[in-house]
Amino acid sequence: MAENTAVEEVESDLEDAPEDEIVVLAQKWKKKRGSLIMALHELQGRLGYVPRESAMKLGQEMGVPLATIYEVLTFYNYFKLKSPGKYIISVCTGTACHLKGSPKLLEGIEGQLGIKAGESTADGEYHLQGVRCLGCCGLAPLASVNGKVYGKQDVTDASGLLDHVAEDQPTVSAAQSADTE
User: Fold this and answer.
1) Does residue 175 sit in the same domain as residue 96?
2) Mind listing the pLDDT tens digit of every residue in the chain (181 residues)?
3) Which class for 63: exposed (0-12), middle (13-18), buried (19 or more C-beta within 10 A)?
4) 34 and 7 assigned to the same domain
5) What gap in Å lies between CA 23 and CA 51, rounded to an integer?
6) Is 167 found in the same domain as 92?
7) Which of 103, 106, 114, 92 is nearest to 158 (CA)?
8) How far is CA 17 from CA 77, 92, 175, in A?
9) CA-CA distances (angstroms) from residue 76 to 89, 106, 117, 158?
């Protein structure tokens, strides 16, 4: 049990020192061929997005030009360059959900929040995104908020999902919410 405590203390020390965490991350992936994407995935998993300063530090530590890093970050829509918000709402746009009205659900949420898919509200509370599949086709149409799934949504009333968020206040780590994309 004492070993676990020591590991937890080291991990929390790394969280307090993001620069050092990036150095450790870079060392882990630096010598592996084609590992830039994996390093960026891990960085985003820890932070929830890839801040410019972190990308610069990772590039310096791995010997990769910043332009190359941004080529990867902007090519793949998985990566976020801005902090995504407190509540990440993912609306499934897979076949089953699409057929059951998820485009209307997404449009309704966009109207309620005043943003488009891929954007965050000005106050940083919500980030809205369409995702290809959440793997719960029997619950179509569905959405998830920070990884918590809400099935059989009423596509004519998007406020129902936002009411769930207000009641449940679902929270997960940045790494878990990044995995849902």
Assistant:
1) yes
2) 444 443 343 343 334 445 688 999 899 998 888 899 999 999 998 888 899 999 999 999 999 999 999 999 999 878 888 888 889 999 999 999 999 999 999 999 999 999 999 899 999 899 999 999 999 999 999 999 988 999 999 998 888 899 988 888 887 544 444 444 4
3) exposed
4) yes
5) 15
6) yes
7) 106
8) 28, 36, 17
9) 19, 22, 16, 29
Q: Is the pTM of this model over 0.70?
A: no
* Predicted pLDDT of residue 18: 59
Query: From residue 137, how far is each of 94, 96, 98, 147, 165 by CA, in Å?
Result: 8, 6, 10, 16, 21
**Which residues in 20-43 are b (16+ Cβ under 10 Å) and which e?**
ebbbebbeebeeeeebbeebbbbb
41 in the same domain as 91: no
* Domain coverage including residue 162: 87-179
* Residue 8, φ and ψ in degrees, nearest 5: -60, -40
Question: What are the C-alpha distances in Å from 75 to residues 68, 81, 94, 102, 178?
Answer: 11, 12, 22, 26, 17
Alpha carbon distance 174, 127 (integer Å): 13
The answer to whether 110 and 117 have CB atoms below 8 angstroms apart is yes
Residue 81: inside a domain: no
Q: Kindly report the CATH number assigned to the domain that includes residue 170.
A: 3.40.30.10
Residues 95 and 150 in one domain: yes
Instruction: Please give the tally of structural domains in the chain.
Output: 2
Write out the two tokens for 131.
């995702």
